[in-house]
Amino acid sequence: MKEPPGFCVYSDVTTETNYGERESVDNNIHGHYVEPYAGGASVALYLLLEGKVDRITINDYDRSIYAFWYSVLNRTKKLCDLIEKTDVNIENWLRMREIQKRKKDADILELGFSTLFLNRTNRSGILDAGVIGGLKQEGSYGMDCRFNKEEIIKRIRLIAKYKKRISLYNEDALELIKRVQVESNNSDTIFYFDPPYYLKGPRLYKNSYNNEDHDKVSQEIKKNETPRGKPRGISRLILPGLTLDPVPLRKTYPRQAAGY
Question: What is the pTM of this model?
């Protein structure tokens, strides 16, 4: 089976696949796949490119992540040109950091490229982490060790070919859930919920959730359960560690504390 071109732009597995998640849903879904918290969207892209689903909806409230996906789908050539022509050095790393500091007003292509650049050159792929190898580049690995320009460009171009089957949003997850519920008039829609970590979220995400936020999402999910535990108007609803339809998922971390 060929490697799917997922970009987990929030972790150190960019351009790789979360195989635990992929195997869990591989043979159990079809139709329309929705991720309100897409991040790297590796599972969504795998399912689409392998023909497991007809279309996908990906959403991320973080404008940096949204800008990256927007650039992949709508500024493909310019994004690939930036990847090809930009030197991977400390001078440009510092410049990309400054772009992130003004993310609300930054040009969307500029911000999208900055997100990719920092994900590829920072420790663990975290946007506000330190650079691989340190500012003096005296570490065991250089900052370009995970920046394979040729492979990244190849995968971006492949994903862009599917743009007509990808819906992209930059909305609060609750608003996205409501939108898709209104637009989906059939049972071939599956939601995959993977909200920010309950305890470690503030250390890992730019837009983390507090207890009230987690509770709101939990209540919205519960509103869509039928008496048998299936969501209303959609075929399946999945959370890591919990499924409301018999789709085998690996337990990745507990959600009970957040009320899921």
Answer: 0.74
